[in-house]
Amino acid sequence: MKLLILLVLVAATGCAGMILGGRPGFVGGVRLVGAEKDHKSLSNKPAVQRTLDELTKRIVDYGHNEYGEVLVGKVVRVTSQVVAGTKYTITLKLGLSDDVDCEHEARDGFVSAKNCPSAELGLYKVEVLYQPWMPKKYTFVDFENLHGLDLKTLWTASG
Questions:
Q1: H-type helices in the chain, by residue range?
Q2: Short-list 32, 30, 6, CA closest to 18
Q3: Model pLDDT for residues 104-158, shown as the tens digit of each residue
Q4: Distances (CA, A) of 102 to 36, 83, 107, 148
Q5: Dihedral pair phi/psi, residue 119, rounded to 5°
Q6: What CA–CA distance (Å, rounded) separates 154 from 105?
């Protein structure tokens, strides 16, 4: 009987967390990691840095980029959700530029939007699953065009 009561209490606590929007550490709870105002700290997050590297590799390095030479970007928002690992949803402003000044500021094909103000930026969302116990720690689940240039075709053509 005591075991049954304990199980009911544990289940109720977990369900309440998910129903009330989730709490960090509970499966299904979504947590805001950061927003645009603290984008410097967001860019330093390993999942965000890995995503920016993957975006550059897929869009610029694979040569499917017919619009420009460097990827211009700015992290807008990052949320995390505990699943079988951690799912990050990263919202970014992205664009492509062949502006010479932007190319000079670029590092490995990527330049921050603040260093390339002439670039037109669209809004995009990338979902990344981080599973540190797996051989491939980061899995890129989805890329969504919210507004702007269709970068999803470049993303999927090389992924």
A1: 2-19, 39-43, 46-56, 100-105, 152-157
A2: 30
A3: 888 878 888 888 888 889 999 999 999 999 999 999 999 999 998 888 877 776 6
A4: 21, 38, 10, 19
A5: -75, 140
A6: 23
DSSP E strand boundaries for the chain:
30-35, 70-83, 85-97, 110-112, 122-130, 138-147
pTM for the full predicted model:
0.72
C-alpha closest to that of 75 among 120, 114, 119: 114
Per residue in 37-56, pLDDT (tens digit) is 454 566 668 898 898 888 88
Identify whether the C-beta of residue 124 lies closer than 8 Å to the C-beta of residue 154: no
As a whole number of angstroms, the distance between CA 59 and CA 109 comes to: 10
Question: Tokens standing for 41?
Answer: 């700290």
Closest by CA position to 108, among listed 158, 145, 55, 155: 55
Alpha-carbon gap, residue 5 to 23, rounded angstroms:
23
